[in-house]
Write a structure and sequence with these properties.
The structure holds two protein chains of two kinds. Chain A has eight helices and two strands; from the N terminus they run H-H-H-H-H-H-E-H-H-E. Chain A is mainly α. In chain A, strands 1-2 form a two-stranded antiparallel ribbon. In chain A, helix 3 crosses helix 4. Chain B is built from three helices and nine strands; from the N terminus they run E-E-H-H-E-E-E-E-H-E-E-E. Classes of the chains: A mainly alpha, B alpha+beta. At the A-B interface, helix 1 and helix 2 of A face strand 1, helix 2 and strand 3 of B.
Chain lengths: 138, 159
């Protein structure tokens, strides 16, 4: 991959807060774009819903828009879903409340350890119900 | 006055290749922009955002929604969007995989046409955009796999 040496030199000194700003701005723009599609509407309809001009919505989707919390609240309300989550309380709620109740994880484990399961002559249907956090959240 | 200008590859990424323009015997147009706004400049934060924006676009694809339309209907002139200031970098969005970076500057007028320097930079890109379109229709230029092939040198009239 070709990189320009002058630009590379400049990149070395880019401030961390600029990285955070650009990453989060793009994430928010992509999330709003995703929610617009999920709601089966387009920018024009969202603009009408919010009483804004379509050019304003276009600005939100550029990936470098400096959102205010008020604007984000309007967007979340219109699109009926979260664009951002605040670290701390919300994430704690997700970690503690979301549990996985299914026999499937056990079945997956059983398949992975197929020889062990066969030795005991047991079938998945008779195994106890698995209740516990997903590995992602553990 | 007639001047020779060439299109050259500047940086390549997984999803987008960035080209820029170079007048014969000069620095590239995007390097001129970097020269105008060095690290000591009051616009350094904005230049850093532009640099990271290039990387993001390179990784995601040059979708139209990431660009600020600046030109007339049906031309490919856009600006790299910066909401918090009026710094502009003009670009040609040739496709979702090809972007040509031009020069730019601090926009202090309501439209670029009213600023002599910004107008000349934007007009240059529009001219190049038109030449590329003509060359594609004449089969002198081919776009393939995010690359520009064929005639990449042009002679243009500069006022």
């Amino acid at each position: 991959m070709i990189r320009n040496p002058r630009l590379e030199a400049r990149r070395k000194n880019i401030k961390k807060d600029i990285d955070i700003y650009v990453n989060k701005s793009f994430d928010m723009a992509d999330r709003i774009h995703e929610l617009i599609k999920k709601n089966k509407i387009d920018q024009r309809i969202l603009a009408e819903m919010l009483g804004k001009r379509e050019s304003e919505i276009s600005k939100w989707l550029t990936g470098t828009h400096n959102f205010t919390l008020r604007t984000l609240s309007l967007i979340e309300n219109a699109l009926q879903d979260d664009v951002i989550l605040v670290a701390g309380k919300e994430l704690y709620k997700v970690k503690t409340k979301v549990i996985f109740v299914s026999t499937k994880p056990y079945q997956i484990e059983a398949k992975k350890k197929s020889t062990e399961v066969k030795t005991h002559g047991r079938v998945d249907a008779k195994l106890p119900l698995y209740i516990g956090p997903t590995t992602m959240l553990s | 006055m007639k001047r020779k200008i060439s299109i050259e590859l500047y940086e390549e990424y997984e999803k987008v290749n960035f080209y820029t323009l170079r007048f014969q015997g000069e620095e590239t147009e995007f390097d001129k922009f970097l020269d105008t706004y060095p690290e000591e400049s009051v616009f350094n934060d904005d230049v850093e955002i532009i640099i990271r924006w290039i990387e993001k676009i390179g990784a995601k694809g040059a979708f139209e929604r990431y660009f600020r339309p600046e030109g007339k209907f049906n031309d490919d002139l856009f600006a790299i969007p910066l909401d918090v200031c009026n710094l502009r970098v003009y670009v040609l969005r040739i496709s979702e995989r090809i972007v040509i970076l031009g020069n730019g500057g601090n926009k202090t007028t309501d439209t670029y046409n009213k600023d002599e320097i910004l107008n000349s930079e934007a007009t240059l890109l529009q001219k190049i955009g038109n030449l590329i379109k003509k060359s594609i229709s004449n089969e002198k230029v081919h776009l393939y796999n995010g690359r520009i092939y064929g005639k990449t040198d042009f002679t243009i009239e500069i006022e």
